[in-house]
Design brief:
This protein has about 375 residues and is of the alpha/beta class. Helix content is about 45%, strand content about 5%. The chain is built from 13 helices and five strands. The protein has a five-stranded parallel β-sheet, with helices on both faces. Helix 2 runs parallel beside helix 4, helix 3 runs parallel beside helix 12 and helix 10 crosses helix 13. The longest helix has 26 residues. The relative contact order is 0.12.
């Protein structure tokens, strides 16, 4: 029949809203599961397991996982002053199985975060804790460590599985390194340091050391330490020291504190900026209060004679790896351990070193006040000392 429709018109398929929603969430859930599985298997921040010499390591992301999952009985924790410690030397000289967590500029709140994990897992019998006096000068310390890497709840795990840091900063590099490892590709020593748990944060191969370098950096204010507010400085420092010591559980293993050996130029600069004596006094306060809380072992390396030799440094505070090796020797021999008898002597040696250094480099300093311990705040001397 003319005009009669002989076939059905093909209409586009229209998905019902319910089906579309289910399909969309099905895809999202599938992607989430895939992403989560990949992060779980690769585990770039060691939240589930530790693989040494496989990944490009950054202490600001892997430290919490290392403390929780690494095999160790001794934990070393501190600032960039500790980053060049050689763990093989620790094993050899002290007969321990160490884990080193060294983060540049680590503050007391971040140390608290890591110690909390260490206490929870209970692996360490000993804790070596670097004590930088600058950590007690600032009222505004906050943890910069990603909070989701410090917790084990479901939301934190989801943050880890979907984190920008894992997927875009480290996963591509990590998978490339795994492939290179499988292919037997050799890497330069400097590069291999970045992949070693034992060398976490190690910067010893990245800089040159020497007197001319230090003085040039000092004059041009490169790597200069932060300005210190001297208003009520000693009072603020003692309050922070009390808070800091109270956060430790001294019943859980032996706690060994040590003051790193900054250069004499650092102490001269501290005198120029008028916080030298407040620091000495605060250090003595720390020692006294730590002993009252049951701490038996404190090392004070700051009066060592080599601190006057700038060839051992790259700037006013950072020393060459050989100084870290020397510190390990001191731990093994108990040299520079603070006692009631030598506490004041160590302080006076630091004062003498600083004065001698200042006399050797008068052109570096405008303030010519004597560094003899007679001005300003006097170091506290324990009545039993």
């Amino acid at each position: 029949m003319i005009g009669k429709e002989t076939g059905k018109k093909n209409n586009p398929i229209i998905m019902r809203p319910g089906k579309w929603t289910v399909g969309f969430f099905g895809i999202v859930c599938s992607l989430f599961m895939i992403f989560s599985l990949v992060v779980y298997v690769v585990d770039p921040f060691f939240q589930f397991r530790v693989k040494d010499h496989s990944y490009m390591l950054n202490g600001w992301f892997v430290s919490g996982g290392l403390i929780e999952n690494y095999d160790y009985d001794t934990l070393i924790i501190g600032s960039s002053m500790t980053q060049n410690f050689d763990m093989d030397k620790f094993r050899d000289k002290l007969e321990v199985n160490p884990l080193h967590i060294g983060l540049g500029g680590i503050n007391r709140v971040e140390i608290q975060d890591f110690m909390r994990i260490a206490y929870q897992v209970g692996k360490a019998d000993q804790y070596y804790i670097c004590t930088d006096l600058t950590a007690f000068t600032d009222d505004t310390h906050k943890s910069r460590y990603p909070a989701y890497l410090l917790r084990q709840d479901m939301l934190s795990r989801v943050q880890y599985f979907l984190s920008y840091e894992a997927w875009f900063r480290y996963m591509p590099v990590d998978m490339a390194l795994l492939a290179a490892n499988k292919a037997g590709v050799g890497l330069p020593e400097k590069f291999r340091y970045k992949m070693s748990v034992d060398r976490l944060g190690d910067w010893g191969l990245e800089y040159e050391f020497g007197k001319d370098i230090v003085i040039d950096n000092y004059i041009n204010e490169r790597y200069a330490v932060s300005q210190v507010d001297t208003t009520d400085l000693y009072k603020r420092m003692t309050e922070h020291i009390d808070w800091y010591l109270d956060m430790f559980d001294f019943d859980k293993g032996e706690h060994i504190f040590f003051f790193p050996p900054y250069s004499s130029l650092y102490w001269c600069d501290a005198q120029e900026k008028e916080y030298f004596h407040a620091y000495l006094m605060a250090k003595q306060y720390f020692m006294k209060k730590a002993r009252e809380r049951g701490v038996h072992t404190i090392y004070d390396f700051q009066s060592a004679v080599f601190t006057m030799d700038l060839d051992n440094y790259k700037d006013t505070t950072h020393f060459a790896p050989k100084i870290n090796d020397w510190m390990i020797e001191c731990f093994a021999k108990e040299d520079y351990m603070v006692t009631d008898k030598n506490m004041e002597k160590l302080q006076q040696n630091l004062i003498k070193n600083t004065q001698a250094f200042k006399e050797s480099y008068p052109e570096l300093f405008d303030n010519q006040k004597a560094c003899d311990g007679s001005q300003g705040l006097q170091p506290h001397v324990d009545e039993q000392g």
